[in-house]
Specification:
With 435 residues, the protein is α+β, with helices and mostly antiparallel strands. It has 3 domains: 3-65; 75-134, no CATH class; 236-431, no CATH class. 30% of the residues lie in helices and 21% in strands. It has helices at 3-22, 30-65, 85-96, 98-101, 112-115, 137-150, 224-227, 230-255, 291-299; strands spanning 158-161, 168-174, 206-212, 214-223, 276-278, 309-313, 325-326, 329-330, 332-334, 343-347, 350-354, 367-371, 375-388, 397-410, 428-431. Strand 10 and strand 11 (350-354) form a beta hairpin. The chain is elongated and about 105 Å long.
């Protein structure tokens, strides 16, 4: 409520309260009437407290106007880009503070916020309560790029961009769960026939995946004192948000429950039977990963020519890799130039990626052989960013928010039965508990 509305409410409630008190002497039920008096008194107290809070905010705003204003660019400088996300955040914080937004009190706004297509995300850029300035696209994209660079699982998936105006992606596919005769392509079958024989008609079985975009968001508060230090601000925001968004994306693809986030492939989703667990070696030592485990996992992997296949491992497993040999020949080859590379080495020719999401050594999910070509991630646009001064106004802090539309799931729903044999194949395979 506005101050005028609160003043009006206080006046009306005071009149009602006086009338109720005046009627106390003739009340038929004094106990019930007392309860009515107490309720009206509590309502009046609440509105008075709201009015006091608004008046305190006004006093705070007037004090803030007297502070030294930030430098404002001239018309000639309006085309000069911001040097960093920190510098732009400082300009936005000033623009949305009382000294900047309430220009009638002497404040001015950095002209680059208008000239460089960074105008309000709300109805009016000049009034904080009606809108604010968006973080520049170049910095938003930079944050998203860094998130992708720091992620280990997300960049390996099949990424399909979704156009503006769309909220989901439909993927038609062949509903094939077995390679047995009569099941290939969901029901197609060919026959050897004689000259006058007629084959039985069959047809492929089609289905579709629908993946709807979900939102991944980051929220931060920054004090005015920190905002004045633009270089430090750039480092803090770019590193912190890139790292956190990368972790959340990877974690959702690994173990997400599909509710408001991607549907993961990990052991937590074993109820769907997508993640195949191979048995451990007979009498295998607890908390180990041996060559028999790796070879058994390869035999259960569903793959096609050209697929992107990797080993995901917990760092606990590193010590097991040099011990793996076939005779005298090692099957693990370390990456001798690992600086800046996401790959630790190769095992049976497939690259190894160390991820925090993998379980500890000896637990199902400590090593996952993954066909990432069978996992689809959809995204829309880049990173969206906005800010507000109102959420933490009393603490002299700005609120900054980043959002990214993304979702994902595996395009194969259940393991596939091969043409010969009964052991099913899956794009994601791990080894059972070794305890």
């Amino acid at each position: 409520m506005t101050k005028r509305e609160l003043l009006s409410s206080v006046s009306a409630l005071e009149t009602e309260y006086s009338a109720i008190l005046a009627a106390s002497a003739v009340a038929a039920d004094p106990v019930a009437h007392l309860a009515t008096v107490d309720a009206k008194e509590a309502e009046l107290k609440s509105v008075r407290e709201q009015l006091a809070a608004v008046e305190a905010l006004e006093a705070r705003a007037k004090q803030n106007v007297t502070r030294e204003p930030a430098r404002v660019t001239s018309d000639n400088e309006a085309k000069r880009p911001f040097s960093s996300v920190g510098e732009q955040l400082s300009a936005i914080a000033y623009a949305m503070s009382p000294r900047g937004a309430f220009q009638g009190l002497g404040g001015q706004i950095d002209k680059r916020l208008y000239e460089q297509n960074l105008t309000a995300t709300g109805a009016n850029a000049a009034i904080p309560s009606d809108g604010g300035f968006a973080i520049g696209t170049e910095f938003s994209t930079q944050l998203l790029t860094r998130a992708a660079e720091r992620a280990r699982i997300f960049p390996l998936a099949m990424n399909i961009p979704v156009g503006e105006g769309a909220d989901s992606l439909e993927l038609p596919y062949i509903d094939e769960v077995s390679r047995a005769n009569g099941s290939r392509w969901g029901g197609v079958q060919a026959y050897w026939t004689g000259e006058a024989d007629s084959p039985t008609a069959t047809r492929p079985k089609l289905a579709r995946h629908e993946i709807r975009l979900e939102q991944l968001k980051c929220l931060a508060y920054a004090t005015e004192r920190l905002l004045r230090n633009a270089p430090a601000m750039a480092t803090v925001f770019e590193n912190a948000f890139a790292s956190e968004m990368a972790f959340k994306l990877d974690d959702a693809i690994w173990r997400g429950d599909g509710v408001g986030k991607p549907l993961g492939f990990s052991v937590q989703n074993i109820g769907s039977a997508l993640l195949v667990q191979v048995a451990k070696k007979s009498a295998q030592t607890a908390a180990t990963f041996v060559i028999e485990n790796a070879s058994a996992m390869i035999s259960r992997l569903y793959r096609e020519p050209g697929d992107n296949i990797v080993w995901f491992m917990n760092q606990d497993c590193i010590g097991q890799l040099p011990l793996m040999t076939v005779g005298s020949q090692p099957v693990f080859l370390p990456n001798m130039n690992a600086s800046g590379s996401p790959y630790y080495g190769t095992l049976f020719g497939y690259p190894i990626v160390l991820v925090e999401q993998a379980e500890t050594l000896g637990t199902a999910g400590d090593v996952v052989l993954a066909n990432m070509s069978k996992y689809v991630v959809i995204t829309q646009g880049g990173l969206r960013a906005a800010q507000s001064m109102h959420v933490r106004f009393l603490f002299d802090e700005m609120t900054f928010r980043w959002g990214f539309d993304v979702n994902g799931q595996c395009i194969i729903k259940t393991p596939i039965t091969p043409f010969k044999g009964t052991a099913t194949l899956s794009p994601f395979v791990t080894t059972a508990v070794r305890a």
